[in-house]
Specification:
Elements: E1 2-6, E2 27-28, E3 31-32, H1 33-43, E4 48-53, H2 57-66, E5 73-78, H3 85-92, H4 94-97, E6 103-107, E7 110-112, H5 116-126, E8 130-135, E9 141-145, E10 151-156, E11 161-163, E12 175-185, H6 189-193, H7 202-209, E13 215-218, E14 225-227, H8 231-237
Parallel strand pairs: 1-4, 1-6, 4-5, 8-13
Antiparallel strand pairs: 2-3, 6-12, 7-14, 8-12, 9-10, 9-12, 10-11
Length: 248
């Protein structure tokens, strides 16, 4: 089973912590966040992980070497020259992720109690282009889904902006859910991406193909999730073990 961890971000909201250390190596409960995610993926049966890097990338590579890649296969997708955003990051990592089986994508700044095996198996059962973890948390930007859980659009409630591939789209007719930074993706995505530029958002890509390709929500019950990308949530995360790992 393959997975990708997005670890290339600049971590601007966590400055000055991230001026000298990549966000992926910021500690939560005594462990670097990257280590927490790798261990959870490994415990869930994922044995090949791709990690994209950009900001202070040598620190992440040295950390993985020191840990002997946690006893599994880990490849580095190097974005040192240019940050490629989420869609571009997946496209570039295609050299490692292509094949017959779906792969899971996990943001490095997300700690949750999600059963990664369960969302992966749900994706296999329905075989869509992508299965995205969502939650009803308060935010400004929402993905919009129909009654069958299929992606139909996106809205920013702060600005009123709406995106959808559907004609005469009324966002009020659809269920709004917040994307939770974890999704399972079919390898056929790489054929659909081949004409896209190197740098683009995966959400923009999903929206562009949603009229023809099935992209389903995965609304996990009793989901507990924290995004450590801000100082206040990073402080809160020090005392939670949503991922089941011991707080040291």
């Amino acid at each position: 089973m393959k997975a990708m961890i997005f670890a290339a971000g600049l971590g601007t909201r966590l400055r000055p912590l991230t001026d000298s250390k990549p966000k992926a190596l910021i500690e939560v409960g005594g462990r670097p966040i990257l280590e927490r995610i790798i261990l959870k993926l490994k415990d869930s049966g994922f044995n090949h992980i791709v990690i994209n890097v950009h900001h202070l990338s040598s620190q992440i590579i040295d950390f993985l070497h020191a840990k002997d890649n946690f006893g599994i296969k880990i490849d580095i997708s190097d974005e040192s020259g240019q940050l490629l955003d989420t869609g571009g990051g997946i496209k570039k990592a295609g050299e490692f992720l292509r094949g017959r089986e779906p792969f899971l994508v996990h943001n490095v700044d997300i700690i949750s109690n999600i059963n990664l095996t369960a969302i992966y198996q749900r994706h296999q059962l329905r075989d869509p282009l992508a299965t995205v973890l969502v939650s009803p948390r308060e935010t400004s930007r929402y993905l919009l889904f129909d009654d069958y859980g299929r992606l139909t659009g996106w809205t920013n409630r702060s600005t009123g902006e709406v995106k959808s591939p559907l004609p005469d789209f009324d966002p009020n007719q659809y269920k709004a859910e917040a994307f939770a930074g974890i999704h399972v993706v079919s390898p056929k995505i790489f054929k659909l991406m081949k004409d896209w530029d190197d740098r683009f958002s995966i959400i923009d890509f999903y929206l562009s193909v949603a009229a023809k390709e099935r992209i389903f929500s995965y609304p996990a019950s009793n989901l507990k999730l924290i995004d450590i990308g801000k100082p206040e949530t990073l402080a809160e995360a020090q005392y939670c073990n949503y991922d089941g790992l011991q707080i040291q």
